Amino acid sequence: MVPTVASIVTISLFCWLSLIGLTKSGANNLHMYDGIRTHDIIAGDVFFEILDPPELEYTYRLRPAKDFGGSFGTTYKATSGKLVPAIPADACSTRFENAEQLVGNIALVERGDCSFLTKAINVESVGGAAVIITEIDAESDDYDYYIEMVHDSTDRDTDIPAAFLLGKNGLIIRRTLTKLKQPYAVVNIPVNLTFVQPHEINQPPWLQW
């Protein structure tokens, strides 16, 4: 039996909707159907690995800022960089208690109280090389989602890369470093996963597949 044009269109639409459902099925879902590459699902996002401490040795996903800042891989990259939790964590001023530790490193910052751009500018002003922003309020509606960070419509800008980290990851990284009394995590960023199968990605065990 020769398929009709209508049946072909229906099948094509079903496949297309299935792919959309796959990519939107969860903030952390990297599963795929046979024939769909990891690159097709994660295009645009950035990944990094924590190399130390051992308790955090996993691969983490970031959502880069949409329309401000530099980019990981060109503006900043490191095979043994330092991810330093900023103090105070909101980065809404340049009065960091650990400003010296932020110089040349990546600041881990909490969302809230000021714009994403303001946080990046403040980190850059003390010599920070990049900023990762996260939602650590487990009661927030955005805790389990990636936030699209956009410019705040001022006449300011920043040259350092900025990206958003899933809330649960950010919270556990902060808590673990605090528990270990370790001021930073050693990271490799960015990690190229273009040709890595989704099931081979070393995601944190606390994320739902």
Folded structure, characterized:
This protein has 209 residues and is of the alpha/beta class. It has 2 domains: 43 residues, no CATH class; 150 residues, Glucose Oxidase, domain 1. The chain contains 5 helices and 7 strands, in the order H-H-E-E-E-H-E-H-E-E-H-E. Strands 1-2-6-5-4-3-7 form a 7-stranded mixed barrel. Strand 1 and strand 2 form a beta hairpin. The longest helix has 19 residues. 31% of the residues are buried. About 15% of the residues have low confidence.
> Would you tell me which CATH topology of the largest domain applies?
Glucose Oxidase, domain 1
What is the helix content?
Answer: 10-25%
Gross geometry: globular
Number of separate helices = 5
- What is the succession of H and E elements? HHEEEHEHEEHE
Distance between the termini: 40 Å
Which features would summarize this protein structure in a list?
7 strands, 209 residues, 25% helix, seven-stranded mixed beta barrel, alpha/beta, Glucose Oxidase, domain 1, single chain, 19% strand, 5 helices
Summarize it:
Helix content is 25%, strand content 19%.
Summarize the topology:
Layout: H1 5-23, H2 38-42, E1 46-52, E2 59-64, E3 78-85, H3 99-102, E4 106-110, H4 116-125, E5 130-134, E6 162-165, H5 167-180, E7 185-189
Parallel strand pairs: 3-4, 4-5, 5-6
Antiparallel strand pairs: 1-2, 1-7, 2-6, 3-7
